[in-house]
Amino acid sequence: MNPNADARRSGADTKTDPAMREALSWTQSARFLTTASLLNQLPPPGLPEVAFVGRSNAGKSTAINTLAQHRRLAFASKTPGRTQHINLFELGPADAPDARWADLPGYGYAAVARGAKLRWQQVMADYLAHRHALAGIVMMVDSRHGFTPLDKQLLDFVSQRVGTGEVKLLVLLTKADKLSRNEAAKSLATAQKVLGELATDTTDISLVLFSALSRQGLGDAALVLRQWQATAVHVVAVDGDTEAAAHAEPDAEAPPLSPA
Ligand SMILES: Nc1nc2c(ncn2[C@@H]2O[C@H](COP(=O)(O)OP(=O)(O)OP(=O)(O)O)[C@@H](O)[C@H]2O)c(=O)[nH]1
Ligand SMILES: [Mg+2]
Hints:
Layout: E1 5-8, H1 18-27, E2 31-36, E3 49-54, H2 60-68, E4 86-91, E5 99-103, H3 114-130, E6 134-142, H4 149-163, E7 168-174, H5 181-196, E8 205-209, H6 218-231, H7 242-247
Parallel strand pairs: 1-8, 3-5, 3-6, 6-7, 7-8
Antiparallel strand pairs: 2-4, 4-5
Residues 60-61, 82-83 line the site of magnesium ion (MG).
C-alpha cells in the first residue's frame, strides 16, 4: 500500500510522549461554538475546519467527547440519528482560537424520513464539497463492520479534494474495544486496503484503531489533528462571504449522496 496511507498503532505513550501530551492538551481545549442546520448559518470561514463524518451510530460524537475529555460536549446517544445539525466546536486559546471541528449528521440511518435524509445529505455534501475552510475529514467507521457501501460512496465523493491533498483524511476504526486482537488486525488490514486505493503522492491519509472506552488510539488521533492544525492555511474571510452566498443555492456540482 502507498506509504502515504499511514497505519498508526498505539505505540507511543499518551503520558510520556511530549508531542502527544501537547496534542491532547490542545484537543481538550475544544468548546462548543454554534449549531447550524443550513450552511449559510455557519460562521464565515476563517479558521481551519475539520469535519467528523460517518454512519449514524459509528461514534462521531463520542470520539469528539473523548478527544475533548468532556463527557457531554457533543451529544452521544444510543439512539441513531441523534446529531441532526452541524455542531461547531472551537479550539485553541480562548482569546486566539486556531481551529474548528464540525460534528456532521450521520448517514445511513434507515428510520429517518426520506425527505429529511435527503436534506441532511445535501447539507453534508455541500459542506464537504465546497467549504473553503475544510482542512481535514475525520471519518468514523465501526471497526466491526468496516467500510459500508455508503462509507465508500462518501470516500468517492471526497476523493477529488482528498486526492490533491487539499483536504486530509483520518479514518478512525471505532469501538475497537469490542474486537479481539485478531479481529482488530483484520479490521485494520481491510481498511488499509480500501484506503490504499485512494492514496496518491499528494494524499495525506491516516488510519487509527480507536476506542472511546479504552482510549486506544486517542493519542495518535490527537497527534494527527494537531498536525493538521499546525500545517493548515487559514482561510481569510472575504467581505460579503462569497462562499456562504454560493451555498444559498443548491449546487449542481454537488449531488446528494443517495439515501440508504
Ligand atoms: N464500546 C464502545 N461504544 C462506543 C464507542 N464509541 C461510541 N460508542 C457507543 O456507540 C453509540 C453511538 O455513539 P455516538 O457517538 O452517539 O454516534 P454518532 O456517530 O455520533 O451517531 P449519530 O449522531 O446518530 O450520527 C453510543 O451508545 C456510544 O456509547 C467505543 O469506542 N466503544
Ligand atoms: Mg452524533
